[in-house]
Amino acid sequence: MNLDVDEDEHSLEMHMPFLYSVTNNVGKKVKIVPIMISASDETFEKKLTKYLKPYFNDKSNAFIVSTDFCHWGIRFSYISYTPTGDLKDLVEKPSSKLQIPIYESIKCLDTAAMTIMSTGSYRSFKDYMMLTENTICGAKPLALLMLLMEDFISNREENTIKFNGYAQSSKVVSLRDSSVSYGSGYAVI
What we know:
The chain has 189 residues and is mostly helical. Helix 3 packs across helix 6, helix 4 packs antiparallel against helix 5 and helix 5 runs antiparallel to helix 6. It holds the Pfam family Memo.
């Protein structure tokens, strides 16, 4: 990650006070190892997974992935829209006559991503990202997490990643508006 990208990145700075708070009373020092991934391909993700797997399998470790979801609006260069709520109907730009509000379309995009992540399917998530080009900042780390979890998910029937919150910064109703979506989820292995 180059210096400009690093200076623009705020995720770690946002989470450090929280991490400090929850680990402060543990009784021992907790090591935090930030891993920031801004670009990768499947080869890199699979190689990194191999290196991280022993740490992931060690129950004394916790992995935290931080991301927001869809950044929608002209200023984000992303205005894809699904008039029916179905991804197969996704278009690059909404027409002037909307079948559903734009904020509902955004929610459909994000909910589809969370549903796929809940299954733990790395391949399905990669396919989703290719189809929608959704502007999920942490798509690369999320894909890496799904790769790490594959062994555990294949041995369970229920979903492993559970989402327990979703919000949008604003309700987009026109092309002049913009919004950033946020989801919260967890997995216990």
